[in-house]
Design goal:
Largest sheet: 7 strands, mixed
Shape: globular
CATH architecture: 3-Layer(aba) Sandwich
Strand content: 15-25%
Number of domains: 1
CATH topology: Rossmann fold
Order of helices and strands: HEEHEHHEHEHEHHE
Radius of gyration: 17 Å
Strand order of the largest sheet: 2-1-3-4-6-5-7
Length: 243
């Protein structure tokens, strides 16, 4: 019988370190599928973040580099400028990209660096124990907002990274997707592939935000976490093309 579904060539056969129901594994696979389909494995370089995906390079069978917390896009910029023939992407969580890495994100986008950025947003600091992140929803409970995030207590509002970056001339593409259902996964793959194609065509800076479940930190079972994205998170962070 002919196989209709198999592991992508650029996805290593290795045990996962992610929690049950985590969305990182889905996004890792989609990136591997896209690299295979575009036949860019030999010139792809991924930049892993500090966060739950700090070991992303254990899963991808192409060149990867590590970066200090928040500096993935700075490292990606240096590599791309030294090796403009390579396809360079950063893979970052909401804490890495939109907190300690805010300056790197804004200025890389503003310069229009010909890079691809994959931004995985689960609304919390996952690796460090579940503190409030810039993208934590109003009312969402974390270890640093046990009563729920409240702007009246000085905890601020969720940060809309794509909407902020969309006003910059250097940004050519920004889209928000999720991985809650099979159709959502297909839409996510389409968006990430477009972001890579933009780089191949030297169009400038592309970013794809992926709303991803974090059942462990959210203290939910995986099916509940998936529903919470569709029922609550999408209300705050609408899906679709921002630019």
């Amino acid at each position: 019988m002919k196989a209709k579904f198999k592991r992508p060539r650029t996805l290593r056969d290795t045990p996962t370190h992610y929690c049950s129901g985590c969305g990182h594994g889905i996004v890792h696979r989609l990136i591997a599928e896209i690299v295979d389909e575009l036949e860019i494995r030999e010139k792809t370089i991924g930049i892993a973040p500090v966060g739950c995906a700090v070991l992303a390079y254990d899963y991808w069978d192409f060149d990867c580099s590590e970066a200090a917390h928040g500096r993935a896009l700075a490292v990606a910029t240096g590599i791309k400028r030294c090796r403009p023939d390579c396809i360079v992407f950063s893979y970052q969580g909401d804490g890495d990209l939109s907190a300690i890495g805010t300056a790197e994100t804004i200025h890389t986008a503003n310069r229009g660096e010909n890079l691809t950025c994959i931004f995985v947003n689960n609304g919390v600091y996952g690796m460090t124990g579940g503190q409030m992140a810039p993208t934590t929803l109003i009312g969402q409970k974390t270890v640093t907002t046990p009563l729920g995030r409240d702007p009246q207590r000085g905890e601020g509002y969720p940060l809309y990274i794509l909407e902020m970056l969309s006003v910059l001339k250097g940004v050519v593409y920004a889209e928000r997707v999720c991985v809650s259902t099979p159709s959502d996964v297909l839409a996510t793959k389409k968006a990430i592939k477009e972001a890579f194609i933009n780089q191949l065509e030297n169009k400038g800076f592309s970013i794809v935000e992926v709303l991803s479940p974090c059942p462990t930190i959210w203290r939910m079972k995986p099916p509940q976490a998936v529903r919470w994205i569709k029922e609550e998170m999408v209300k705050v962070f609408p899906l679709g093309r921002v630019k």
